[in-house]
């Protein structure tokens, strides 16, 4: 169903790239556990459309960095959309698991995407200076703000999908960080939101 929704608003080339990605993910997943096995039948809604909505909130950028990319959500979907809608933007995926990085590079090669995949720990790389920073299912908001304070440029924006506990996470994070945030309802999960965050300064 979600594939049909997406197909209405992207070029044939973008849809082909998404199909390449979905097929490779389905093939590699049993070996390296890119997403929970139970979510594969719902891949297009649960992972791809979920990532598309993140891209649409931040589709004008110079350098987008996705931390803890895993199987590529939302960063690799952002790269596929960016190839059609914002080709001048640069995208970096950071993922410490070498096998997942091999997967991400394989999809990029097969789909003809020009991205950088860093097989490193977020804490150990020099500042990325990104103006958009995303991370899904990586860490608590408090920890994410620590990563963002290192890797985001001064005017940059972090975009973090968060689940049902998001309000408690914001309250906890406000004990450690000053930041401006807005929340938008998720289109794929009624309990989830996407947090847009700027102006991160340690308390
Ligand atoms: C739960 S997965 C989420 C993957 C993807 N963002 C998603 O939503 O499907 C978290 C990923 O972050 C990676 N990761 C965790 N800590 C990391 C770190 N310090 N540096 C780089 N990658 C890390 C893990 O290897 C894993 O692939």
TrEMBL record:
The residues that hold S-adenosyl-L-methionine are 68, 73, 122-123, 136
Has keyword Nucleus? no
Q: Name one GO molecular function term.
A: rRNA (guanine-N7-)-methyltransferase activity
Enzyme Commission designation = 2.1.1.170
Q: Give UniProt keywords alphabetically.
A: Cytoplasm, Methyltransferase, rRNA processing, S-adenosyl-L-methionine, Transferase
> Which reactions does this protein catalyse?
guanosine(527) in 16S rRNA + S-adenosyl-L-methionine = N(7)-methylguanosine(527) in 16S rRNA + S-adenosyl-L-homocysteine
Give the signal sequence positions.
none
Q: Where are the transmembrane segments?
A: none
Q: Which GO terms describe its cellular component?
A: cytosol
Q: Which residues form a coiled coil?
A: none
Q: Where in the cell is it found?
A: Cytoplasm
Function noted in UniProt: Specifically methylates the N7 position of guanine in position 527 of 16S rRNA.
Tell me the PANTHER family matching this sequence. S-ADENOSYL-L-METHIONINE-DEPENDENT METHYLTRANSFERASES SUPERFAMILY PROTEIN
- Family membership, please give it: Belongs to the methyltransferase superfamily. RNA methyltransferase RsmG family.
**Protein name, per record:** Ribosomal RNA small subunit methyltransferase G
Look up and give the organism this protein is from. Pseudooceanicola algae
